[in-house]
UniProtKB/TrEMBL annotation:
Ranges that cross the membrane: 64-84, 96-115, 127-146, 152-173, 273-292, 312-336, 343-364, 370-389
Protein name (record): Oligosaccharide flippase family protein
Keywords: Cell membrane, Membrane, Transmembrane, Transmembrane helix
Superkingdom: Bacteria
Main location: membrane
Coiled coil feature spans: none
Keyword Transmembrane in annotation: yes
Pfam families linked to this entry: Polysacc_synt_3 (PF13440)
Organism from which the protein derives: Mucilaginibacter boryungensis
Subcellular location per the Swiss-Prot or TrEMBL entry: Cell membrane
Topology of this chain in the membrane: Multi-pass membrane protein
Stored PANTHER family: O-ANTIGEN TRANSPORTER-RELATED, PST FAMILY PREDICTED COLANIC ACID TRANSPORTER
Length: 425
């Protein structure tokens, strides 16, 4: 939520081209960071959750070892790019080269602490880390605005400062697990590597799936079009926030059940989360259609009212129905040690999306073509993932939505009971 507030503030105080460059950097950095996250996060949570203490210590130390290695490789690769800056005229590419390395280094302790706390089911601490990181960035940005020093370069500087401040908090609270790096073993490193080589492909493909729209728009329609398109993506991220939280919780539960060879429990957890979240998404989707124009005005301000942003958001709401099922299919395939099937699924979705984006821009000459291409992408992806997972687990759509409906009713009743107690107090 704090990230949404920051985005809204930046939209109101930066030029359309500048905000487009900022989001191009964010998209590119997340893609680069996906190599580290995709290689290690799922593998770490899978092998760490529910493991014996000595085994868990080995996994943590080995993950830190691989994290440092990957960060160092990115640092070395980026050095030659600095010598090419004078030959590049695309501002987005220039900023990526200038700021990727220092941002990548300063975020390593943050992601490591977040993965460790996730595997330990300590979600309050994860929320605290994110709050420190995002709140400090907002405070720095507001300070820049009040002092009239809000420039693209200063936004990049404050982004790094907020990450460094968060690192100080993490090390002070001893949440990073960095001391375990001495406990890494060759066997654990190899185990993480062999699992990660499939999950990283899935993660990079999944991120390319999300970021391909931004890259294609940047090089065909320009950064101004990115600014408009990103409003719709930001609004979609709003409804994705609770989904990511449930995915984080669900992945830990799935991994613990899988590590204890409880297949029926894995099936139950998958159906519960996928079904309940799909049902919960229905009124959210309807609300998105109705209030799209109001939402665009709240995020982007008056200068984005009347642009295609609201209609693009409505298009996103069409395929949003498939997102919970698609997301949990992918997570479950990874957890049951079948990451290559998830990788193939996402790769096919990426191919459909890229072809659809270029075809949409060619025929419609606007970002509408990019938005429409997302619909068949998620429909086909969900269908492919569904039949892939059915090869290993016993479920069908009826059982998913039946259990999801039951869990939704229980959730609603629980909320009502808590509200009733609050009123009595």
């Amino acid at each position: 939520m704090l990230n949404i507030i920051t985005t809204s503030i930046l939209y109101r105080h930066m030029a359309k081209e500048e905000i487009g460059v900022w989001f191009f950097f964010q998209t590119t950095f997340i893609l680069i960071d996906t190599f580290r996250t995709g290689f290690l996060q799922t593998a770490f949570v899978k092998f760490y959750a529910g493991a014996q203490p000595e085994r868990a210590e080995n996994i943590l130390g080995s993950t830190w070892y691989l994290g440092l290695l990957i960060t160092g490789i990115v640092f070395l690769i980026n050095i030659p790019a600095f010598f090419l800056l004078n030959y590049i005229d695309n501002l987005g590419i220039i900023e990526v080269i200038k700021w990727t390395t220092i941002t990548f280094v300063s975020t390593l302790p943050i992601v490591m602490a977040t993965w460790l706390l996730q595997a330990q089911a300590r979600y309050a601490e994860i929320l605290y880390i994110r709050a420190v990181n995002q709140a400090s960035f907002i405070i720095f940005v507001i300070t820049l605005i009040l002092s009239k020093h809000i420039t693209l370069n200063m936004v990049f500087i404050t982004n790094v400062l907020s990450c460094l401040l968060t690192c100080i908090v993490i090390f002070s609270c001893r949440w990073s697990g960095f001391k375990s790096v001495t406990k890494q073993t060759r066997g654990s490193v190899k185990e993480l590597f062999h699992f990660g080589k499939f999950s990283v492909g899935t993660s990079i493909s999944a991120n390319l799936l999300r970021s391909s729209d931004t890259f294609i728009i940047n090089f065909t329609l320009g950064p101004g079009a990115i600014a408009i398109y990103n409003i719709s993506q930001t609004l979609t991220n709003l409804i994705d926030i609770p989904l990511r939280s449930f995915v984080t919780t669900g992945m830990t539960s799935l991994a613990a059940a899988q590590n204890n060879n409880k297949k029926e429990e894995v099936e139950y957890i998958f159906k519960k989360y996928a079904g309940a979240l799909t049902i919960i998404f229905i009124p959210v989707i309807i609300g998105g259609f109705i209030f799209a124009d109001v939402a665009v005005s709240l995020i982007g301000g008056g200068k984005y009212v009347g642009t295609p942003a609201a209609n693009i958001f409505r298009i996103f709401m069409i395929f949003a129905f498939f997102i919970p099922l698609d997301r949990f299919i992918g997570v479950t395939l990874d957890v049951i040690h079948k990451p290559k099937y998830n990788f193939y699924k996402v790769l096919i979705m990426l191919a459909i999306n890229v072809v659809g984006d270029f075809a949409g821009i060619y025929f419609m000459h606007s970002i509408y073509g990019v938005g429409i291409a997302s619909i068949p992408t998620f429909v086909f992806g969900t269908v492919i993932g569904y039949f892939s997972l059915k090869r290993f687990l016993n479920f069908d759509l009826t059982s998913i939505f039946k259990l999801g409906y039951t869990e939704t009713r229980i959730l609603i009743q629980t909320v009502r009971n808590k509200l009733g107690r609050t009123r009595e107090i």
